[in-house]
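Let us practice reading a record.
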Amino acid sequence: MTLFAATRPPRHIAVGPGQRHAIGTYARAYGNRALICTDERMGQDPALRDLVDSLAAAGVASQVYDRTLPEVPMSSVAECMEIARAFGPDLLVGLGGGSCMDLTKVVAVLLAHGGEPHDYYGEFKVPGRVLPVIAVPTTAGTGSEVTPVAVVADPEKTLKVGIASPELIPLVALCDPELTMTCPPGLTAASGSDAMTHAVEAFMAARREPSSDLSYSHVFLGKNAFSDMYALQAIAKISANLETAVKNGSDMKARENMMWASMLAGLAFGVAGTAAAHALQYPVGALTHTAHGLGVACLLPYVMEYNRPSCVPELVQIADAMGLPRTGEDDDARAIAAIDAVEDLFIRVGIPRTIRDLGLADDQLDWAADQAMGAARLVKNNPRALDVAAMGHILHAAQTGARADLRKLPA
């Protein structure tokens, strides 16, 4: 195998308890007026006041927008932009989960380049630098603090749509696990399972033929040496800590490890990309109105099973990263054991076992399979070829819980 490695991290990453308090020092290097994008939950949290005070002590004025809605509807974008234009920020702070990060990135684009969100849908549509972004995640899940993607809900589109550009990568990521201590069990489970899905899909992503232009001709480059390193460590940390973080949210060590793992998973998929589980979640999420993390995690074991014939060595490495005991089984059996272990972890933290449990109706499967093929950047990243029929097979197995049925498909 020819060596190829690429990574696009933020300029500064700080991970650990108390790191949020460094925000003033970082902020004053990039501007004097900070718009803070957060949600209602964090708007009532003392951590927001601490952040505002830290900025003020550094001589940075701030304005708070605390009405970010899940999945970032256009109404949130428009409302935040109105406040932003009146305030005139020269940098942005995203405080919260994935939706807060997505809104922050979109507003950073619009303030720098004008227009509407739909002007930037797809890859490489952002023409240049955006306003500086400092990302402060409050969940251990999306990894958005280090990724080149923002996803929004456009009423003119059936599914959520993405803006993908290296220009969206925040300049600073302050990953403070203390901010996740009040994260409720359900959100901890969904966000942590989302991170696991990011790591697994990045590690199992298709590998592209290395070329001198690969790193700047695609936003998602496919599996490579950097993403593999990040993904395997994320898988190991999540498998060892997610259940503890869900069942004992006051366990600081588990919270630290999950914050670290979520960030690593973001670094992995931010350059390698994700694949079929995310492509399928777009229509499944649109139909069931369920959280993104629940959907991708519910789908992941079935996608892993479908991809298994193309990824046995990777699945064996996942089994090793998860610490599964070696019992003398052959590689194919160990690959199946890795999928079993991921599925079992998700079940233990409350992820639904089937998409029927999410509320998907049987007569919606064909539409979902067809729509999933529209996520071209994810479809092309899958390690095993996908078409509408294959998407249908995965969805049917995920609807009925019959994962073993996918082993009957021709390799």
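A brief commentary: The domain at 185-408 is CATH 1.20.1090.10 (Dehydroquinate synthase-like, alpha domain).
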